[in-house]
Design goal:
single chain, Fumarase C, Chain B, domain 1, Fumarase C, Chain A, domain 2, 3-stranded antiparallel sheet, elongated
Length: about 500
């Protein structure tokens, strides 16, 4: 194996490798162990086919058509037909990052060698990943059981040269793109279409991407909370280490310790320690709320990483035995995507309440709406409205997809997870949270400038970097530019606080 290639084997994929392959576009390959397992599984399947036994999806129809027998000479055509018929998605295309995540998760699952596919199929997925080819995959179509049939079928359709490829946002015929890149279209063999499209790779691949974004958002939100506390002259007594240890919640302790440490040396906080008995909940209870979000994130990561390293196909092959079961059901992943959506939505709720507090002269002790000569100037009044609107949008989106089920396939598949909807709406919630955090940074830094005292080293460093690109608001100007620029700045932060809470 070449240097610099990350080998996967069906058992060793974690968040760091996922991030390197999907986002950093490191090259990926199949381990020798995986090749052996895949080949062994394929030999077992071929022996089962030769025995003449009825094998679901190999020599039978699919779903409620399972009792329709398929002739041996039609078995490969059955696989082609499966992909063509199941490429039935709708909506805007999934992003390149999401599609790469889906392909990686599917490849890793097949590497376990319990699906009966060939090494060539897994290698074709690697070729697409390593060549930067992004199949066109519509957003809607999966109900999360039996697997993510529609999105995965769209990917395979492109691999067959019959679908479409996204090239810088432009949809192109897959056959043309593959020819240009000297990649042969894939020819499906027995069971390979079913092995590819009958699994939870779309929910899991998207869920992993949103997990990474959620971790970044929580770290950024912890930073923006610190800056708001500085501007509001809060007390850090509630974050005293022995107080945090009095409650056995690990996330609370991590967040509280980060707040206590990063606020150290601030004259604003020292004054708050002397003059305040306690702060409002949105300040004082930040460790409890953000800590619960942290614990949720860690739990979600454990479930998603296990799912990435699982066989989610049907039927499964073990030696010369095959069993039709339910590993394709997306419920475990659907639930954690919904769980993470709930946690992030409440994270946004708390941030918005701090935004409201810092703009209210009666609560903050600062100029009304953080601008001098208020009345003539409205300052950041409407920034709080925008944060409120985003919070409301998240509250609409947060209804759990997994709480619903609609029977499919003539009631053969009579309970489904709806996990793809859970994963996709989680993406919008993450977008909105990032916007709300950006707003808090802009307002907190303005408040710090108005208060004009000595702040902690952490807070001062962020203020300095921000003020290089966003000036103090002296009088009204279009502030959407400030919030957009702040998003760009903060998403480029290398924050020690990430290590404080996640390591």
């Amino acid at each position: 194996m070449e240097d610099g290639i990350i080998e996967i084997d069906g058992f060793n994929l974690n968040l760091e490798k996922y991030q390197d392959i999907v986002l950093n576009k490191k090259r990926v390959g199949i381990s020798d162990k995986a090749r052996t397992n895949i080949q062994k599984s394929r030999v077992s399947l071929e022996k089962l086919i030769a025995s003449g036994k009825n094998i679901y999806g190999v020599n039978t129809g699919f779903g409620s058509l399972l009792n329709r027998k398929i002739r041996p000479e039609e078995e490969r055509q059955l696989q082609v037909n499966l992909i063509r018929s199941h490429s039935a998605g709708f909506g805007k295309p999934l992003s390149e990052e999401k599609v790469r995540g889906i392909m990686l998760v599917r490849a890793n699952s097949l590497c376990r060698g319990q699906s009966g596919c060939t090494v060539e199929l897994v290698q074709k997925i690697m070729d697409f990943l390593n060549s930067g080819i992004c199949p066109y995959v519509p957003e809607f179509g999966s109900v999360g059981s039996s697997g993510d049939l529609a999105p995965l079928s769209h990917i395979m359709l492109a691999m067959m040269g019959e679908g479409e490829i996204l090239d810088n946002g432009i949809r192109k015929n897959a056959s043309t793109v593959l020819k240009e890149k000297h990649i042969k279209p894939y020819e499906l063999r027995e069971k390979e279409a079913l092995a590819f499209n009958n699994g939870t790779a779309a929910i899991t691949g998207i869920g992993m991407l949103e997990l990474i974004r959620a971790k970044n958002n929580l770290a950024l939100a912890t930073g923006s909370a610190i800056l708001s506390m500085e501007a509001l002259g809060a007390t850090r007594k509630a974050f005293t280490p022995w107080v945090l240890k009095a409650r056995d919640q690990p996330g609370q302790a991590k967040i509280g310790n980060a707040l206590y440490t990063r606020l150290g040396g601030s004259a604003s906080i020292e004054e708050g320690d002397r003059s305040r008995i306690q702060d409002a909940y949105t300040i004082r209870c930040t460790p409890q709320v953000f800590g619960a979000v942290l614990d949720t994130i860690n739990y979600v990561e454990s479930v998603l990483v296990r799912e990435m390293n699982s066989t989610t196909d049907n039927p499964l092959i073990n030696d010369e035995e095959y069993i039709s079961a339910g590993n394709f059901h997306g419920e475990p992943v659907a639930l954690v995507c919904d769980f993470l959506a709930i946690a992030l939505t409440d994270l946004g709720n708390m941030i918005e309440r701090r935004i409201a507090r810092i703009t209210d002269e009666n609560l903050s002790g600062l100029d009304a709406f953080l601008v001098r000569n208020s009345g003539l100037n409205s300052g950041f009044m409407i920034a709080q409205y925008t944060a409120a609107a985003l919070c409301n949008r998240n509250k609409i989106l947060v209804y759990p997809g997994s709480a619903d089920t609609i029977p499919t396939c003539a009631n053969q598949e009579d309970h489904v997870s709806m996990g793809a909807n859970s994963a996709n709406k989680l993406s919008e919630i993450n977008d909105n949270i990032n916007r709300i955090i950006s707003t808090e940074y802009v307002l907190a830094i303005q408040g710090m400038d108005l208060k004009n005292t000595k702040y902690s080293e952490f807070s001062e460093s962020i203020r300095r970097e921000t003020r290089k690109q966003i000036s103090f608001l002296e009088q009204d100007r279009p502030i959407y530019r400030d919030m957009d620029k702040m998003q760009e700045i903060m998403n480029g932060f290398e924050m020690d606080i990430y290590r404080d809470i996640f390591y």
